[in-house]
Every structure is written in C-alpha cells, then in structure tokens.
Write a structure and sequence with these properties.
Its cofactor is Mg(2+). Belongs to the purine/pyrimidine phosphoribosyltransferase family. PyrE subfamily. Homodimer. Catalyzes the transfer of a ribosyl phosphate group from 5-phosphoribose 1-diphosphate to orotate, leading to the formation of orotidine monophosphate (OMP). There is one protein chain. By secondary structure, the chain is α/β, with parallel strands linked by helices. The chain has a single domain (3-188), classed as Rossmann fold. The protein is built from 7 helices and 8 strands, in the order αββααβαβββαβαβα. A 6-stranded mixed β-sheet has the order 5-4-3-6-7-8, sandwiched between helices. A two-stranded antiparallel sheet has the order 1-2.
Length: 189
C-alpha cells in the first residue's frame, strides 16, 4: 500500500472507532450474542467514509472483475462508492445490489443493476463479516444468475468464522480491518 492508501486506511479506522463501534450487549443478525456491535453504515453513509471505502476497495479488486455486488442493505453504499471511484479511475465497474427476497412485481428479480454477459467475474462486497452467511447468499444468487464469484471483500472481519467458511467454499476473502484492529484503536483513544 502506498502512503496515500495507508493514510486513507488510518482515517477510515478512526471513523469506525468514532461512529460505528459500540460496546454493550447485542444480538447479531447471525443470532449470536456479542458484547460489541459494529454498524458499518454509520461510516459508509458519510461522504468521507464512502470515499475512503470506495478508494481502498477499488485498489483491492482483481483486473478480471467485471462488477461488484453485495447484499442489501449493508453493501449498498459500499458497491455504489466503489463503482463511482472506478468511474473516476477511467475503469467503470458496475454495481449490483442483491435482494434478500425476490422483487414482488415486474421482473421479480433478485439482482438489481446492469445485465452482464454470462460467466462475468464478480467480487462480492460486505460491511461486516461474522459467520459469512450474508455474503454467501449474494454469492449463491450471482452464481444462479450465471455469473462467477472469485472473492469477497469486507470492511471488517469480526473473526468469528467467516473467513474460514469462505475458504471452505473455495472463495478468496480479504478485509480492510479485523475487529482486533478496531478494538486496539478504540483502546488507544
């Protein structure tokens, strides 16, 4: 990573600590109990957070990536930010948003966004990975639509089995931060 990316990564880490990280008693979407909660949308829906996320993830994409996609709602601002940054880099990459339930009208589609050629390589984006099941639903919907998925990129890995799960499914996984990074920075502040 160049100095600009490192500086951007540090700014993003500080935003996660300031706006997204809370300690207390929480029930996660996976059903697990946790003594901390991370609301990525508190960062990704801020202009500076979206820009940092877009720039950092754009540099993590493989050359063969034809689109980025994610499960609504947590991934919506992320895929949009990366797509906008890609346009500024003169390498426009479309964003796809995957519904949890099929649309109840019109085409009844699970996937919103431009249609791509069958076999197109898509990278799935996620805000926070715990067990890995949320992003895996997006992967399954994309594969069922005739696309290929090579990698999942997350803003934060909660280090609760998601990375191992993706590996068991034959998928690459990268995250910008681990929960340990955020908790260490939180203690520093």
């Amino acid at each position: 990573m160049d100095n600009n990316s490192l500086s951007l990564k540090q700014q993003l880490l500080d935003m996660f600590v300031e706006y997204a990280y809370q300690e207390g008693d929480f029930i996660l979407s996976s059903g697990q109990k946790s003594n901390f909660y991370l609301n990525g949308k508190q960062v990704t829906l801020r202009a500076q957070g979206a820009l940092a996320v877009g720039k950092l993830i754009y540099t993590m994409l493989d050359d063969q990536t034809k689109a980025i996609a994610g499960l609504t709602l947590g991934a919506d601002p992320i895929v949009s930010a990366v797509s906008v940054v890609s346009a500024y880099e003169n390498n426009p990459i479309p964003a796809l948003i995957i519904r949890k339930e099929a649309k109840g009208h019109g085409t009844k589609a699970y996937i919103e966004g431009p249609s791509l050629p069958e076999g197109s390589m898509i990278t799935v984006l996620e805000d926070v990975v715990t067990t890995g099941k949320s992003a895996m639903l997006a992967v399954e919907r994309l594969i069922n639509a005739g696309y290929k998925v090579d990698k999942i990129i997350s803003l934060v890995d909660r280090q609760a089995g998601g990375a191992e799960f993706y590996q068991s499914q034959g998928l690459q996984f990268e995250s910008i931060f681990t929960i340990a990074d955020i908790q260490a920075r939180n203690r520093e502040k």
